[in-house]
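Figure S4 source data
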Amino acid sequence: MADPPGPEGGTRARQVALQLLLAVERGRRLDLAWSEMAPDLPPRERGWVQELTFGTVRLQGRLDHLLNLHLRKGVASLPPSVLPILRMGAYQLLYMDGTPAYAAVSQAVEEVRRVAGRRLTGVVNGVLRSLGREGGGPERFPSLSSHPEDHLSTWGSHPRWLVRRWIKAHGVQGAARLVEMGNRVPPLYLRWLTGSLEDTLSLLKEAGLEGVEGPAGSQTVRLGPGTSPAKALNVVPGIIQDPAASWVVRWCGDLRGQRLVDLCSAPGGKAVALQADGAQVVAADRSLSRLQLLKQTRERLSLSLPLVQALGEEPPFSPVDAVLADVPCTGTGTLARHPDARWRLRHTDIQALSRVQKEILEGAARIVAPGGLLVYSTCTLEPEENEGQVEAFLQRHPEFIVEGGEGVPEVIQDGPYLRVLPHLMETDGAFAVRLRRERPPAGDMSSGVG
């Protein structure tokens, strides 16, 4: 639990928190807004603002349900500038023990007065005082056993359409565990690139930093709560990477000495890890700004890693030994790490992104040499973007076959697929498949540029 900001700068911290929430309401990604707005805050206030903003977004569905119990016309009746303030006040009351109740209420009232005038200060004051008296326990929510969709979309704070899909795919209890995992504050993992687990733990310990071995086969260390990732990366040659992403790298297999194009590489964790494992990697991405992040990593680690701005749908490369298509997706396996994504997603995004994935797979297939490997991966749990995409690809491309992988725990091997489910592994979610080109596509006898 982060300490509350002291009297000096406290008002500024609350205003930064409000600006972050307003940016998210306008469609800005929370992690990007955070990186832009928070760096100048003192460390104590940074932790407090991060907990308040990420927690408020993560539990937005739960908070709105509670606020609706105290608002005659519901949260939809509030001006866009006022609702985030009320949500922040509710989160402080219920989940930030270091903030006294009177302070949470008075701060919210003053913020409303500042942004919207006096008209709604009485409403905000009354709602938060009532909420403080009556609390926000599970008893104030629909029952999981009798109304699972209602429970998981309110207490569970996930969009109803996604809850409905997960109940159908994983059952009520499986969906409940997925929702629970989506509401946790995920740990940070460091993947070392040189040396061993023992070397990594020793370097961290010498620097006064905490770390314990990550899940089997992931080549990661879980950093201790509150550990600065920047400090850890200063002492260990590595990258911040969840075990799920690290398992995808392992699933690619032994590619030492082989030419590999990572088509959707930025921000670059998989490309860097594959090169560290011995592949000759070219990292491509359509976004120049995201490639800049990879460039910073490359410079930090003194890597020789070519970067190319290119569309995955139209890759400008001659055939290579291996291609990684880690495609854009709905990201439903990473909602704990990106809590705002759940509120941006719509069910129509699955179909829209499936079309993008299909085109990138087509582009990737054109640059896989005969005998070469195409690895398709996502961080979503939705079958249309995973096995459904693969099955449709194989119908169009009989020259490719599915082959299994190795080097990862058996529990995440689902037949020929790598499938990491957050509620089973307590990590991010991931999917990957290895597709081997056996022969040139029909009608193509050339070996030139695809």
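Figure S5 source data
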Amino acid sequence: MKVVINAVSAKMGGAVTYLTNVLRCLPPPESGYEFDVFMPPEAAERQEGLPRNVRLVATSVGHAAWWKIFWWEQVTLRRWLKRRKADVLFSTANFGMFRCPVRQILLVRNALYFSRIYQDEFLARHSLRFQVPFKFRRWLICRSVRQADVVMTPTQAMLDDLRRFVEVEPWKGLVNPYGANPTGSFLPDAKGEALQSLAGTTPAMRLIYVSLYSEHKNLATLLRAMPLLNRNGTRKFALKTTVNPGWEGGAWTVTHKEDLALARQPDVASWVEFLGPLGQQQVQELYREGDLFVFPSLCESFGHPMVEAMAQGLPIVASDTPVNREICSEAAVYFSPSDPEDFARQTRLLAADAPLRQQLSARGQERARTKFRWDTHVRRILDVVSAFGTSSVRGGRLTGRGLTR
């Protein structure tokens, strides 16, 4: 079967991580599958060792204005599907093809369009110039969902949020978690001497927060908690994070100036080091430096850094949201999302409880190893593709192994 993968928007961050890992798990030529993958040139250059039946088609259209991408997906890509006599289109970034000439799997992966928290806390603070195209893109996603044969989300919480805006029949919605690449394991307390704090010789507990800066990443709560963590007691806390408010790509956010001001306060700056954005190898090294992983993000479709942290054996302190609970389960402790005092309290308790840290580390590694596998993610996609090939009725029902009438 000929499968076309539309990943023209995979320019950075989680989109590139996702695409790279999916490509690595695609089956070899003897499987009978052929794959055409549309992706940005910079992402294509990073791919190596792919099977001969995976053809990369580099295009810069993903860097264009959204309406140009939309035109390409509806017109140019349609012509390609017909010319190549493709069997299935896998659209990996929220927007699908209307009246697609082949069966279509749509991955909806941007939680912001459907999150109550984002609508209430951030969207209302943006100008109409931002809100109008935002809501129009959400409308296009909902139209795409209606047009797709199968709609895939990485978490049940994401699918539940999507269903508040558009009907997704039970047979049509597929929850397909992403994977993780374990790079070895460790017990955090056995990694060596703790970081010496900037304030003296007191060992500091090393906190790690990995993500790209954006307004929903809730950096302000974390920064406000740092003085609370370090105000009293002998245990100090130092934070290294790639959620960098100085990153030029985050200047569009409504929280940018506020977060920069917080970051420059003396009782915050003394304990926080901003990094990156970083490459994947540098991120893996950063995980290995940490004692605790913190994830205060308010809304995610999946929260891939939490899975990476679990795979590395890091105990996690996460904001109490449905997605974070779904991903980490009992491998994390949780705090009230916008409460820096609660974050500080939960972090102190975990730092003081070595047996609990060991338990969370073991639970996280087991969870990452058994629940979040890229080969399983790709297998579920190919199960659907295979079922398309055996179903003569468009809009068949989705079962555990694919589609049935």
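The chain has 15 helices and 16 strands. The domain at 2-179+373-404 is CATH 3.40.50.2000 (Rossmann fold).
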